[in-house]
Amino acid sequence: MPVRDQFERCTDPSLNAMHAGLADVIGRWLKREGDSSTSIDNLLFFRREALTEPCACMVEPSIVFVVQGSKQLLIGDQSFVYDTGSFLLNSLDIPASSQVLDASVNRPCLGLVLKLDLRLMAELITQSGLPTPCDRATSGSTAIGTMTPALLEPFCRLLALLNDPVAIRVVAPLIEREIHFHLLRSNLAARLWQIASVGSQSHRIARAINWLRANYAQPLSIDELAIHAQMSTSTLHHHFRLLTAMSPLQYQKWLRLSEARRLMLNERFDAASAAFQVGYESPSQFSREYGRQFGVPPKRDIAALRRQTNSIEAQQ
Questions:
Q1: d(C-alpha 17, C-alpha 179), whole Å
Q2: Number of domains in the chain
Q3: Which residues contact 288 (CB under 8 A, 6 or more apart)?
Q4: What residue stretches are annotated with the HTH araC/xylS-type domain (predicted)?
Q5: The pLDDT of residue 277 is above 90
Q6: Alpha carbons 82 and 62: distance in angstroms, whole number
């Protein structure tokens, strides 16, 4: 079920010029397909040169936008499509699938990710005097916002700092603060107020997610998780599924399987050792659930991933 906020296609020449400038910067810093961190701690670049099938990923609280091409994020039965006229906002750590919809070798899909600082967001809400948004935030942790020159222009100044380490230390935090401020004035302000407000249901679910990420290898007690989130078990289940499209148990399973996949691929664990490491008591159960999650058994999946990695390295 596609989900896309209504917005007019932007024809502002200044916005188009800023997108072209950002595409040039990202293209110069990231010349090969893939993802790349930058010297600015919370900023990442990505480059894709072909259309892709949906790929599993973990999305952090962040703003994501493309300066060339288009992508979509799939969460449960919802799809969030974004291109140069829009941006993707995610307010929780959630499992999802990412897909490139428009890219080629000659015109790659280029974009960036800026991790959100929810504490800074809460501070700005308290100190800025901004009025409470009149509209009500819709359910879910992810949404599509309208790209504006006021939001894009600080990113141009942020990327201009990449060649100046001293300026990064002094100026980058100020520009990131400005970006957060503009987000609080965007058409997604209500959603940000909801997640940043201490005591809100979204804030409590964020606490539950942080606890699960820190304790995913331990047996899951829903009662203990509800106490930590300061919610009843029924309220926890309802709002957790509303915001993440899965139950707490499904979320823990995704964390376990993803970490096991990383251990097998990067640390050379065998399937049984990885299963025990992430909290499974039965390797056969692990293999069944791994196959349901990733489509193939662990051994075949890791072998295919290594072949793909070796092929990319050979091309580079």
A1: 19
A2: 3
A3: none
A4: 206-304
A5: yes
A6: 14
